[in-house]
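Re: weekly structure request thread

Next one in the queue (161 aa):
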Amino acid sequence: MKKLFTSLLLISSLSLFASGSRTALNEKDKASVIEVLKLNEDLHAAFFDYKANEVEANSKLVAKSIDKITNADIKKYLKKSKEQLLKIKGSVDRKKNNELYNEASLGLIYVINKYDLGRTYNSYSCPMVKKKWVQNSKKKAKVHNPYAPEMPHCGRQDSRH
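Done, posted below.
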């Protein structure tokens, strides 16, 4: 009985630690980051189907939404992401745009892992192409790898928010 109680106590402590491990945000800051992530869903979809002009247009929209964030720390974490997003062009080859999107995604991944934004967005990675992205896990439970059209469902969910 004592062993069972100790095990239950350990499990509940770990779950409390895990749920409290991300920093809370005020509603305004949370809403502005969620807006970036919602726009990133369209960018992710454009990469998944690789529509070059949509990739460029959606990259610009995500970058503009980063500008609307007022939280200085979050803005700092997403500065490089914004710079990389603005380099994505429909006229550039897919390989280069994939590299830029991967680099932009790293800032987004940092933010979703650091701050409590709910359970909708998670980080994903593909070990074959060695790239990462953010995906809406509620809308797409299956992996949707935006980098590798020959293996669209290759990869794994890295975070469980």
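Residues 27-49 form the longest helix (23 residues). The helical segments are 2-19, 27-49, 52-67, 72-77, 79-87, 94-114.
Next request, please.
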